[in-house]
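The data are passed on as follows:
___
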Amino acid sequence: MTTLPLTKWKQQKKIDMEKKVTVKVYVEWADKNFCATLGENVPGVVAITAKDVRELKKEVAETLRFHVEGMLADGDEVPQWLVDGNYEFEYNYVDAAALIHACEPYASIAALSRATGINQRQLSHYANGLRHPRPEQRQRILEGVHRIGRELLSVV
């Protein structure tokens, strides 16, 4: 059996700790709230609701810490990366309504309309859950959001 010298082992351990596990957060729009669930790599079921995206992101982090503490207290098996807090969140907006509402603090429906080429009324229908876009249309919305982001980043 080959063993690493202690300094090599510490360096490898540091590299391993720097590699964070991605926890997917699936976000949907539920009437007048955001609703989120955590990905399959988190044991158990975790669901969170919040009025806005900032609150949701704060609640996701706090709720996961609370969930891990509860699993440990119950004697459940918990992956070490969860115990150590060695993870980062990736937010996936499942439906168009959640995606559009998540952008509200930064871009109006009118700005989104200009960036996507989709008329404001249609976007409003998507945001309110009255209609659901085809996958190609949802992709146009996502690309429009990214276009707005790039434009904002190019300001110097």
Q: What stands out?
A: The helical segments are 6-18, 53-73, 80-83, 96-103, 109-116, 120-127, 135-153. DSSP finds seven helices and four strands in the chain.
